[in-house]
Design a protein that fits this description.
Structural class: mainly alpha
Number of helices: 12
Largest sheet: 2 strands, antiparallel
Order of helices and strands: HHHHHHEHHEHHHH
Low-confidence stretches: 1-23
Shape: globular
Oligomer: single chain
Distance between the termini: 31 Å
Number of strands: 2
Strand order of the largest sheet: 1-2
C-alpha cells in the first residue's frame, strides 16, 4: 500500500457510524439492474494493473480512506476545490481516482444512473486484493453516494504516528474491533511507503529522540540506508519486507520480529490484545486448525465496507464520481 497518508464492548446505540444502515447492503444488489456491473469494474482494474503494477495497494488504500471519513460513500472522490475531502493532509498520497472514473464511465454507458461510485470503490478494492494473490470474496453492494465532501472531516484518520490506544479508539469509533485493527493493518502486506513517513521513527522518536527501540537492531541500518537523515523524503520502500508484491501474512511475521516498517504496524505488538491477535495466526495449530488469516481478513474488509453506508433514499447515485449531481 502506498504511504499511509479495541477493546470489544457492546455498542450502545445504532446511531454509531460503524453500524448504521448496514443491513440494507446485499451481495448481487445489481444482478437485475446492471448484471455486468462487477465484471466491468473487474476488467477496468485488471487493465489498470497491467500498466501500473502498484494499482492493487493503491485501490485498497482508497477504500480504507473513503470508509473512515463519513462512511463508505465515495466522499473522497469529489473534486470541487481546495476544501474537498481528498485534499486533506491525512489523505496525501491516496490515488486510484482515475481507475474509479474509468469504471464509472463504462458503467454509465451500460447502466446509466444505477451503480454508485461508493460501490465501485468497494468492488475495485476486492478485485485489487485478488490481483495480488489474495482471497476472492463477495462484496455486499447497494451503497449510495454521499453529498458532503469537506477537508475538515478527515481530521481523525488513523495516522502512522498514532499510539496503539489512539488507533484502537479510532477503530472503535467506526464500529471496528482490535482484531479488525490488526487485520486491516495487514493490508500493508502489499505496496510501498515514502521516507517522509519514516523520518520521525528513524531519527526523532519521542519521547527520548533517536530511533524506535522496537526496530530490530540489524534492520535499523537497512531502513536508514534507504531513508537517510535529511535525505529525499519521496524515496519509497516496501512496507512488507520480503513480500511486498504478494498478499500474505508475512507482514504479521515481520511485526513479530521487529521488522515492521511503519510505526503504526509496530505498535500492534506493544498491546497485549492486538499482540495476541497477531500471534494467533502463527500457533502450533496453524494452518490446519487455527484461525485463517485470509478468511478473517475478508471478514474485516466486509465489515469495514459497511461503515456508515447510505442506502435506500439516502444520498444519490452520481453520474460522475468527482462531482455531486
Amino acid at each position: 500500500m502506498k504511504a499511509m497518508p479495541f477493546v470489544f464492548f457492546l455498542l450502545l446505540s445504532a446511531s454509531f457510524i460503524g453500524i448504521s444502515h448496514q443491513g440494507q447492503l446485499k451481495v448481487g444488489f445489481y444482478s437485475s439492474t446492471c448484471p455486468d456491473a462487477e465484471s466491468i469494474v473487474s476488467g477496468v482494474v485488471q487493465n489498470a494493473a497491467r500498466s501500473k503494477p502498484n494499482i492493487p495497494p493503491v485501490l485498497l488504500r482508497l477504500h480504507f480512506h473513503d470508509c473512515f471519513v463519513e462512511g463508505c460513500d465515495g466522499s473522497i472522490l469529489i473534486e470541487n476545490g481546495p476544501n474537498a475531502e481528498r485534499h486533506a493532509f491525512s489523505h496525501q498520497g491516496v490515488g486510484g481516482f482515475e481507475v474509479i472514473d474509468q469504471a464509472k464511465s463504462q458503467l454509465e454507458a451500460t447502466c446509466p444512473g444505477v451503480v454508485s461510485c461508493a460501490d465501485i470503490v468497494a468492488l475495485a478494492a476486492r478485485d485489487a486484493i485478488a490481483l495480488a494473490n489474495g482471497p476472492s470474496y463477495e462484496v455486499p453492494t447497494g451503497r449510495r453516494d454521499g453529498r458532503v465532501s469537506d477537508v475538515s472531516m478527515a481530521n481523525n484518520m488513523p495516522d502512522v504516528s498514532d499510539s496503539i490506544q489512539q488507533l484502537k479508539a479510532k477503530f472503535i469509533q467506526n464500529g471496528l474491533s482490535e482484531k479488525d485493527l490488526v487485520l486491516l493493518s495487514s493490508a500493508h502486506t502489499i505496496g510501498t511507503t515514502a521516507c517522509f513517513f519514516m523520518t520521525k521513527r528513524l531519527y526523532n522518536f519521542s519521547p527520548g529522540g533517536g530511533s524506535d527501540p522496537a526496530i530490530d537492531p540489524q534492520f535499523l541500518p537497512q531502513l536508514q540506508s534507504v531513508c537517510p537523515q535529511n535525505g529525499d523524503v519521496n524515496v519509497r520502500l516496501p512496507i512488507d519486507q520480503g513480500s511486498e508484491q504478494t498478499f500474505d501474512k508475512q507482514i504479521l511475521e515481520n511485526i513479530r520480529n521487529g521488522l515492521a516498517v511503519l510505526e503504526s504496524d509496530a505498535r500492534l505488538y506493544d498491546d497485549e490484545r492486538t499482540r495476541s491477535v497477531v500471534d494467533s495466526y502463527f500457533g502450533l495449530l496453524n494452518p490446519m486448525f487455527g484461525p485463517s488469516f485470509e478468511a478473517d481478513f475478508v471478514e474485516s474488509m466486509v465489515k469495514m465496507g459497511r461503515i456508515g453506508v447510505k442506502t435506500g433514499s439516502q444520498g444519490e447515485i452520481r453520474r460522475v464520481c468527482t462531482v455531486f449531481n
